[in-house]
Write the structure tokens for this entry.
Amino acid sequence: MSKQVAIVFALTFVIHLISTLSYALRIAGVRTKRIALSFALFNVIVIASRTANAFQAPLLAKHVEQNILENNRTHAESDFRWLLLAAALATVVGGLLIPTFQRLFTRAIEAFNAHRSVPRLLLSGLSPSRLRQFRHVAAMPAPENLHGLSLRQAPTKILFFNVLMTALITVGVFASLYAGYLNPQLRLTANSMSPVINGFSTVLLFAFIDPYLAVLTDDVVMGKTSEAYFRKCVRLFVLSRLAGTALAQLIFVPSAKFVIFVADKL
């Protein structure tokens, strides 16, 4: 693995870790009944994801361009397979960290009422005394929470959409860049076509998945749905994200070929 691929591996890990930890935010919002504030605070963490996203594609594009110019395609596919694996590992780690971050988010939301300022909240959270308290909130998912997980009464259609959305958004940028190896003459066109794949995943996210989670969160706050059912859905959504990263491995090459097909027809 080259230095550039290693950096992109780390950036991909950060992007998918934060996406998975967004479920911890929803649990904290339910616990504190401060949904709007919890999302506002989470936007601070999303900055890290946006920054990682901004560097991910250019670094990987440079790596692909250098290999094409040097006619070096020895590890072309395996490099991308490693990056897809980073997404899966981040999802697993994020799922394991949800109990810890749910508690951290809950404390942060409650502390914001006193500080009324994100910079002050961050400075307070990074103080030595606060950092020492981290061990008191750190927790692993309880094994019994994984028992009895069933799709009965679960939103199976939304979970399926989440698998598909995760797979497409995971593979989008990578497939468009790998397409450059398949047809170097069309690599510039292919490189700009990740929205062809990401566009459908965005539709799934904002038309089906996000609205469902928003309504479910509000229903729990208003007492229409139990918190136990909500937490069960969160666990199923994490598992469906993991399934989506596995599906990304399967559709990676076909997606790259699709990008080349569309690029050739333009």
